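Sample A.
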Amino acid sequence: MKREETVCAKCNGRSCYPLIATEAPLPPLEDAPDFCPMRRFPSIMKKVAEEYAKPKIKEFARLASIQEAECYELTVSGLRTKIPRIEETVQFAKKCGYTRLGIAFCIGLKEEARMLTNIFEAKGFDVVSVNCKVGRVPKENIGLKGQEKIMGPDLMEPMCNPIAQAEILNAEHVDLAVLLGLCVGHDTLFLKYCQVPCTVLAVKDRVLGHNPLAALYLSRGPYYRRVAATEQISDRKAKISLD
């Protein structure tokens, strides 16, 4: 059955990643599945190529690709990785000439944020950090009822405030914002309002030690099988737009 949407995750081909000799011709796009975005959206691919042709974007992408390559090494036994993401972030920031880093972190990862700050400072960066509870805005202000709060109705519970985190890092004129453990949805708002280059160091997953992919790796076993279980959604809520 012909698919009418892009679904690269289900493609068995190698049209976009053929790993052929440098001078060899690329495989014809006709060999790619009908749902391949390179076939479905040629105008987008042309527009994107024009973006990469812009000097600043081209240089940023060039440095990012150099950084990618430096994370690996070819050995007689094959390809292997070399450095963890924290070091990768440091190296890339230096390649870009950044001197001032901003950390937007979950208050539950305060110790990790302190450790990260110390590492960045030891590498010569100025570091700004802002936690998710900045503003101390009660959750009732965004419409939560007492029983909907983590600690229940009897305690004042400040909302996570990713918009404030983003605007503060904007105002601090950081060169690069680093996300550390923001909740699902809160990270979305941060990314919407952040106006400086941004990268994600870690996402929140308290159950799996902030390693959410572990649920995928375990989803075929008996304990996390529920992750991959099929569900029928009968009561769809209205789609929320952030525009």
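Sample B, a different protein:
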Amino acid sequence: MSTSSAGTAQPAARTFTVDRLIEFITRSYVAVGMPEADARTTATLMIEADLLGSDAHGIFRLPQYIRRAREGGFNLRPDIRIERETAATAVLDGDNAMGHLVVQRAAQIAIAKAREAGVAWVGLHHGNHAGAGAVYARMPLAHGMIGIYGAVGSANHLPPWGGMEMLLSTNPLAIAVPACEEPPVVLDMATTVASYGKIKARAQRGESMPEGWMMGYDGKPLLDPKRSNEGFLMPIGGHKGYGLALMIGLFAGSLNGAAIGRDVVDFNADYRSVTNTGQCVIAVNPAAFGDPQVIGRDVDRVVREMRSAKRLPGVDRIQVPGEGSHRRRETQLREGITLPAPLLDILARLAGDLAIAPLA
């Protein structure tokens, strides 16, 4: 048992099976009025984020989601429906549901349409924060398809290049491409150097940030995550990252009638207002472009070329996007997911507040 500097006992880090974590999250949502089927679906998608290594988008988010549900910020019994559609497109009204439920529905529709149309694009409005983008980009992989996910982030932490007003978010992009023998190639990235979830996770663990993640309003690097309100996130690639964040925001937000710019509600600070979060899922069926096996084998070839490229001194291994997440997922499915002591303490207090059995 570890002890904090204030003398308060905290639980040590512990490892849990995937099923146990899903069960705990499910009970938490049911306790605040979510139907059990929706609660279990949301829990499974949250833990998938943890399995992939997106620790700041999995069970870490549960207390925040529960508070929002209790304060009326989520519609716990939504009518998620198609508002308009064509053979290859659809727009969903998420009815302010839990974001995971809305984006999963969008992915399911995109996959079904791509079987017939070859390519399908499904956008949505009145969704909510949905966790890790790779979770949804990977869904078409099970059907031999390419998946693409984009979103307007759920809080603005990025100014336009050269500005100081927070008008954009991390606006993530995730792309998953199936291979034949190799693991799928999966890119999951924020358009900022670090996602705001990583900032929050560092603050919870009492860790500092590397230089380059955030800049203070004084123009100096900001290293203390607990002072994140004193600065802003840095875009990847300077002005190019700002441009990419803007473009993703336009096709995930403006195209769908969702919030962007000053209309974005900071769901980290406001637990009651409707966020009208916009996202999109694209499914691409390789069969529309050629023999999927031939295409898959070429993806294998490219992956192996990247991995076998001549390395710089001191570099032990060249990886392709998603390789580390794939290994981590396989390991954690087998060995369990380890939760740090500060998060366990928060989850224990949440369980007590909800009057449900605790994890540990």
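Observation for Sample B: Residues 99-117 form the longest helix (19 residues).
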